[in-house]
């Protein structure tokens, strides 16, 4: 997801409907519609702000109240975007209840705190664990094999029943740990904060210190009204530690990062990019013809703890989206970028969060382009080395397949050809779409004040 603030990429969180009345008289209808039905309101917002707004029919023809929910209206809006290569370019416009969204952007969750991935049809593994979640506090780690969930064998044959059990508040899970021992834990869903920086490490390769961390989201809590300041502080701490340890090369793991605030993407870019990038374009936002006055340009800037790198390896997969891709796109013209894993999601557009009644509306409102004018990566970024996501080992384990390939690049200066065993099985990929809860894909900004 790409969300935008005035100088950030989280398309518009605190945007109010009073803005519409200052643009043109016909948009008074947007305010009026908000007093009637949220379905009418989210459609009226889309008619004005949607990147492909000229393709939308009148409300009379569209009939927003003929759809069951505000989100179903937005899902229909998607079908008025260009249809290219067998799919609509907009696969993301949505509406969400304010309470749900506010928890999401702050990293607040209430579950057991794990995600899963199949290695094969009969081998389910823990893919991700948040340290402060019920599972994390009991010591569960990525890579642990799952044998049973509430008595149900953890195999593809039982996928529907497994998903039912995973939706329950209490889950008794039989694990096999890396040393071969079994452990049975009963986990009860509870409130926790997600980790955004996971398992930072420093590796010594040929006398050079190589930093690594998994970055899970570009979202995060505000501090004293400053958007995502908590996340920015954690990034600063991570890079300050890398700097104190003389890190001169970096592996950034974005394999599950569906995006977030553009502000955070820009900030992370500043911590990474070489000195020569300072003052150059990070990203430009382009709106529809009604709102060209809100087109905006963000630049690379000096960062106190910046590593000033000349190259970077980024671990990616189809879960790498939006603000993550904006960062990749911004870095490509100013430094060497090597991608390892599998093709990214392909979301070069973002939104503003428009509050209306008890909802936020998120019509795709702008596209992002880099300093070279590149921006239509709807098919995602292809990788320099295909490598499967190795669920059998923890993030930050030097023997985990993606990280191992990245370290090998710094060791040899080359990316070795991909072996057949490292290629991603389409069958396993399909299995994981059934067990993995998809994240929102976000680039969000606050609406520019111009």
From TrEMBL:
Residues 180-389 form the Tail specific protease domain. Pfam families: Peptidase_S41 (PF03572). One of its GO terms (biological process) is proteolysis. GO terms for molecular function: endopeptidase activity; serine-type peptidase activity. One of its GO terms (cellular component) is outer membrane-bounded periplasmic space. InterPro entries: ClpP/crotonase-like_dom_sf, PDZ_sf, Tail-specific_protease. This is Tail specific protease domain-containing protein. The lineage of its organism: Bacteria, Pseudomonadati, Bacteroidota, Cytophagia, Cytophagales.
